[in-house]
Design a protein that fits this description.
It is built from 20 helices and no strands. The longest helix is centred in the C-terminal third of the chain and has 22 residues. By secondary structure, it is an all-alpha fold. It has 3 domains: about 140 residues, Tetratricopeptide repeat domain (Serine Threonine Protein Phosphatase 5, Tetratricopeptide repeat, Alpha Horseshoe); about 60 residues; about 100 residues, no CATH class.
Length: about 400
């Protein structure tokens, strides 16, 4: 914390001096200040600082500085779940970098655009941007830049339930991060490696990676990563039915996420806490957490996570005899899952693999129809799910 505070004071001094000398110097100091404020989660001040830097850089017609401020502003907007605003800034930064021949910076911005699409559950677009970024980074950028994109590609394959590729990419990133000795890079790579293993039931390996990551993330004071690791450790505890430990870890994660304005992270953590309440027979607490998760995730446009919320809300509504509301929730969850399925990276086998892990809303809807004596609609819902999967199976079997 001392080093971080010293850096903030140093940049604030540089801003003061720049204000009295030139817009270019002041803008550069403001951009540097934003890079310290972002990791500690002070997004409100970081936004204000970057908008000021952008205006100064524009007044001085400093193209590289405009691109740098726009890229950093895009990162802050993405962290806040303001995806449209983030894309505007990233695309502006990329155009300037590309036009002026700054290949490494352009590659970094392509990676940032991929992160936006990933958080919007558009795996196809995300993977395309990551692969474009990686191709440039492997030729023109240092290893540190390559590590980040390798880890992101691994995360896409984790989301799509492609275990071998997820672990292969996360292992490459982790090996490079180990050699680099860079603590922020290593902590991020460890979290990605843990996530890849968590998704495929390798709980001991996942927990070991997360536990190794946590003190490194805390040392680098990257609050969003600290919260993410705590949330992942909470999921490990949930899988092991260690309810008290899960609640403690998830609660700590949520506290950090709420404090820094991480709406997506907080929403996803609330989903896990809601599931925990459901599993422990606390429906009132579950409903409260899921309602808040719904509000946060709906405001950011994250279909996969929101689909899970709707499914769980549908379960609660069904338990309370609110059949019409439950049907509406399950149908909405199905629509979001199918939308995300249509944006999966790869071919039909990838879509099938993704779909197989997201059939819960179909089963929930079937159960509601069956329990309310609507056998025909229950049968039709199951046939709908089978047909959706069968289309992928048939397509996967086609030559070419």
């Amino acid at each position: 914390a001392g080093d971080r505070n010293a850096a903030i004071r140093s940049y604030e001094g540089a801003v003061w001096l720049g204000h009295r000398s030139s817009p270019r110097v002041e803008a550069a100091a403001l951009i540097g200040l934003s890079a310290v404020l972002g990791p500690i989660g002070d997004y409100t001040r970081a936004t204000r600082v970057l908008l000021q830097a952008l205006a100064l850089a524009e007044s001085a017609n400093e193209r590289e500085m405009i691109a740098s401020a726009a890229n950093n502003l895009g990162i802050v907007y993405r962290r806040l779940g303001e995806f449209d605003l983030a894309l505007v800034q990233f695309e502006r930064a990329f155009s300037l970098h590309e036009e002026d021949g700054r290949v490494e910076a352009a590659a970094r911005t392509l990676n940032n655009i991929g992160l936006v699409y990933q958080q919007q559950s558009n795996s196809r677009a995300a993977l395309d941007y990551y692969e474009r970024s990686l191709a440039l980074k492997e030729k023109f950028a240092p290893a540190a830049e390559v590590i980040t994109t390798l880890a992101n590609i691994g995360e896409i394959y984790s989301i799509q339930n492609n275990g071998p590729l997820a672990i292969a990419y996360s292992n490459r990133a982790l090996a490079m991060a180990e050699r680099s000795g860079n603590i922020p890079l290593l902590s991020s790579a460890l979290n990605n490696a843990g996530f890849a293993r968590l998704n495929f039931g390798r709980l001991d390996e996942a927990e070991a990676a997360f536990l190794r990551c946590l003190p490194l993330a805390e040392k680098s004071e990257t609050q969003s990563l600290v919260a993410m690791v705590l949330s992942n450790l909470g999921i490990v505890a949930l899988e092991r039915k260690q309810w008290d430990l899960a609640r403690e870890r998830l609660g700590r994660a949520r506290q950090i996420q709420s404090g820094i304005g991480d709406r997506i992270g907080e929403g996803e953590t609330l989903v896990q806490l809601g599931e925990l309440d459901l599993g422990q027979g606390r429906p009132v607490d579950a409903a409260e957490k899921l309602a808040k998760a719904h509000e946060l995730l709906a405001s950011t446009g994250t279909p996969v996570s929101l689909s899970r919320v709707l499914y769980l809300e549908g379960q609660l509504q069904a338990q309370n005899g609110r059949t019409a509301a439950a049907i509406a929730s399950f149908e909405a969850a199905i629509r979001l899952s199918e939308r995300a399925r249509d944006l999966v990276a790869g071919g039909t086998e990838d879509r099938l693999r993704f779909f197989e892990s997201r059939v819960d809303p179909y089963y929930g809807l079937t159960d509601v129809y069956a329990s309310s004596g609507r056998a025909d609609e229950a049968f039709a819902t199951m046939e709908r799910a089978r047909a959706r999967g069968l289309l992928d199976v048939l397509a996967a079997g086609k030559p070419g």
